[in-house]
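FAQ

Q: What does a record look like?
A: Structure on top, sequence underneath. For example:
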């Protein structure tokens, strides 16, 4: 059974880069045929899929965030990461990692000076 655990900041200042790591246990991110994803939910809004890195290493991004988003992986640590640059208060949300119908615990991020 795959388990996901996110780690990242709770507070980020505007214009900074938000960075999250998802640590995967229970299976390998290179051999489990999943698309390892990042999803967020802003206050009062629905879930927004941000992007993913496939088990074979290709990355995919939602067009509205593509210019600011980078997803990568560290196969030696069985982790995948999210970087979102030039954040604004509109990026305040709960951020989740997700794969194979499994969710991370979710981390609230507030963008504020």
């Amino acid at each position: 059974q795959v388990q996901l655990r996110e780690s990242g900041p709770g507070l980020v200042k505007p214009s900074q880069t938000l960075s999250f790591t998802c640590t995967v246990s229970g299976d390998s991110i290179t051999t489990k045929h999943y698309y390892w994803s990042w999803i967020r939910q802003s206050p009062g809004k629905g879930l927004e899929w941000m992007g993913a890195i496939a088990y074979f290493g290709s990355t995919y991004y939602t067009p509205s965030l593509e210019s600011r988003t980078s997803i990568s992986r560290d196969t030696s640590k069985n982790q995948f990461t999210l970087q979102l640059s030039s954040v604004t208060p509109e990026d305040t949300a709960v951020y989740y990692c997700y794969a194979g119908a499994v969710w991370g615990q979710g981390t609230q991020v507030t963008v504020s000076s």
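Q: Is there anything notable about this one?
A: The CA atoms of residues 14 and 88 lie 5 Å apart.
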